[in-house]
């Protein structure tokens, strides 16, 4: 079982946290990651793009010129798609944007992302996350102590509280996530990952 150092909020190493090999030490599956990323990014679209066809434009009811004798091509309406300012043929229209990733592919992508971070030694542990009263400077000092103050990362917890949320929300480089809600995109868009014993247990329950 791979182990990572666990730190206190003061930045001192206080122990080790074991990472299950079946989650953090698999051969990353690029196909699963690619499939998940495609669907994830597609689902971020709003599906509100729209253009007007010739029947939706105002005007254009009168024939621009007579049918014959002008030397010009025949034209029935100024709303024709071949005219400047005319309607668009087969343009986009508002529609729901949502696709699903098979559960097995989604879980494999998540394991692959976790394993990639583990292979880069970009995972560390945190012994305690309770802060009372909430203070941003405690987490800012912790990130500075472990050399992560200028990087982007995730802090995974089993469950959050208002104090923890308020303590981390003003740190631009740190995002707080519940372990059961994290996804492969967020993981691979991060330079580091911070775990607690409870969040490792939650990941094991979800992925095994």
A few lines on this structure:
This protein has 208 residues and is α/β, with parallel strands linked by helices.
Task: Compile the SSE list and pairings.
Blueprint: E1 2-7, E2 13-19, H1 21-24, H2 30-43, H3 103-119, E3 123-126, H4 136-145, E4 153-157, H5 162-168, E5 174-178, H6 184-188, E6 192-195, H7 197-207
Parallel strand pairs: 1-3, 3-6, 4-5, 4-6
Antiparallel strand pairs: 1-2
Helix content: 25-40%
The biggest beta sheet, please?
6 strands, mixed
Low-confidence stretches: none
**Average pLDDT across residues?**
92
What order do the SSEs take from the amino end to the carboxyl end, as H and E?
EEHHHEHEHEHEH
Overall description:
This protein has 208 residues and is an alpha/beta fold. The chain contains seven helices and six strands, in the order E-E-H-H-H-E-H-E-H-E-H-E-H. The chain has a domain at 2-29 and 100-207: Ribosomal Protein L4, Chain: A. It has a six-stranded mixed β-sheet. It is elongated, with a radius of gyration of 27 Å.
Structure keywords:
elongated; alpha/beta; 6 strands; 6-stranded mixed beta sheet; 208 residues; Ribosomal Protein L4, Chain: A
């Amino acid at each position: 079982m791979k182990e990572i150092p666990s730190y206190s909020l003061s930045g001192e190493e206080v122990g080790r946290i074991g990472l299950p090999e079946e989650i953090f030490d698999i051969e990353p599956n690029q196909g699963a990651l690619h499939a998940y990323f495609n669907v994830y990014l597609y689902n971020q679209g709003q599906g509100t793009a729209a253009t007007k066809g010739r029947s939706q434009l105002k005007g254009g009811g009168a024939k621009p010129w007579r049918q014959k004798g002008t030397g010009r091509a025949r034209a029935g309406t100024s709303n024709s798609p071949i005219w400047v300012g005319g309607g668009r043929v087969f343009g986009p229209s508002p529609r729901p944007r949502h696709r699903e990733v098979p559960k097995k592919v989604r879980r494999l992508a998540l394991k692959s992302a976790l394993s990639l971070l583990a292979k880069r030694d970009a995972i560390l542990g945190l012994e305690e996350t309770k802060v009372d009263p909430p203070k941003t400077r405690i987490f800012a000092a912790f990130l500075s102590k472990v050399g992560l103050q200028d990087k982007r990362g995730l802090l995974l917890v089993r469950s959050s509280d208002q104090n923890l949320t308020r303590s981390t929300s003003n740190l631009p480089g740190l995002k707080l996530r519940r372990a059961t809600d994290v996804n492969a995109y967020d993981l691979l868009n991060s330079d580091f990952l911070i775990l607690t014993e409870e969040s490792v247990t939650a990941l094991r329950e979800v992925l095994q």
